[in-house]
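call fold(seq) -> tokens
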Amino acid sequence: MEILSQILLFHLLWAALVFSQYEDYDFEDEYDGEPDHQLPYYFNPNTQAEVPRFPFPVECARECFCPPAFPLSMYCDHRKLKTIPNIPSHVQQLYLQNNDIEAVPAGPFTNVTFVREINLSYNKIKFHLIDHGVFAKLANLVQLHLQHNELEEFPFPLPSSLERLLLGFNKISQLPGNALEGLHNMTMLDLCNNLLDDSVFKENPFSNMKNLMQLNLCNNKLQTMPPDLPSSLRHLSLENNSISHIPENYFNRLPQIIALRMSHNNLQNIPHNTFNLPNLLELNLGHNKLKQVFYIPRSLQHLYIEDNEIENINVTLMCPTLDPLNINQLTYIRVDQNKLTSPISSYAFFCFPLIRTIYYGEQNVTVNRSTQLRTPVFRRFLTPEEFQEAEDNHETHTHETEEEHEAEDSYFHPYLH
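ret:
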């Protein structure tokens, strides 16, 4: 018994020594690579899988770095790896982005039990080199990054635990009928910048995803609106496709939509009450072929209709009635690159009392010549001095640059909430 006590005391003293060595550890001293330019995904500690606590340094692949302050994370990114190293069973966050990995074999994942996030973005992964079921067996996997690879097909099967799947910038052209089966916990699916066309909707692949809140389908080959989307959807990204028509009452089954982006399509006419949505905050229809405006829901805050063919903005169409007890929330409108010859009617300020900015920019009045309205940017609540300064400095050039406009048109950030 005395010997056991001495052994226990020795281990406690050794553990204290190890802890004191890591107490002032500076992460940047040993690891200067950034884990990709993305917002981190924060896990709720109350929902993490049950993992034993480690009083001593834990196992780590020799090719990677495991911060002592974060023993459940393994960083293998930006290391020119061609293969996936063996993954210790305790790892919860695995970062393998920005390497030269082409295959995902089952071997390295043999003992993996608790992993919740895997980042394999910016590699060279091909679908036929992913071992069948390698992801499906990871029962605690919540987030999977596979964007910027060479996937020709959707990487199924996947675990039912998955909540966020990023597949942008691949070569996916099909969605098999069973590809999304069982993914009832999925809240975000990013399929932007692939080769999807309308044929992917034949089997209504999204209809059973009852918790899906964000769907990104931008930069594909779609010509029609995707049918049978789940009513849980809040963010829908369809920009840079070839959609020419929105069916009447299309959004009746999507009452929770907060943000809708459909810029760079072929829309010509919008049925009057298409966007009669109670929660819509952002609507982007820039770079289409619209000739007139449409009804604006009271909840809308930001409206983008630049680069269309609108000659006159009929405020009555946008705002048919006034309700002092339920005022319109619109604060920003962008209408540059249309065919306007005069500013928006002052009646707009009765309909939209919170409006702060109207960006007129340049207008395409004639085929070969653009013109600029006298007030390229209207801003409310400026002092006379501020207004004069804005006029003198042509605020469109200082604050409304082309780079900013392009940023506004970019698709939903994968971490948008």
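Residues 26 and 114 are 26 Å apart (CA to CA).
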